[in-house]
Design a protein that fits this description.
By secondary structure, the protein is α+β, with helices and mostly antiparallel strands. The protein has 1 helix and 3 strands, in the order βββα. Strands 1-2-3 form a 3-stranded antiparallel β-sheet, with helices on one face. Strand 2 and strand 3 form a beta hairpin. The protein is globular.
């Protein structure tokens, strides 16, 4: 299962609930590591605080 936010996707592991943020390079060819890191940190914080995203 995944959530799509433009060229970024958040995949959710069905067994453990871990979230993985990836960039679809077909939609945005230039890899944007600062954005990926920021989104990953935001989802990790939301998971820690048990916030629904």
């Amino acid at each position: 299962m995944y959530y799509e936010e433009g060229p970024y996707r958040v995949y959710v592991c069905r067994s453990c609930g871990e979230r993985f943020v990836v960039q679809d390079l077909r939609l945005k060819a230039e890899l944007d590591l600062p954005v990926l890191r920021a989104r990953a940190a935001w989802y990790a914080l939301a998971e820690e605080e048990d916030v629904e995203v």
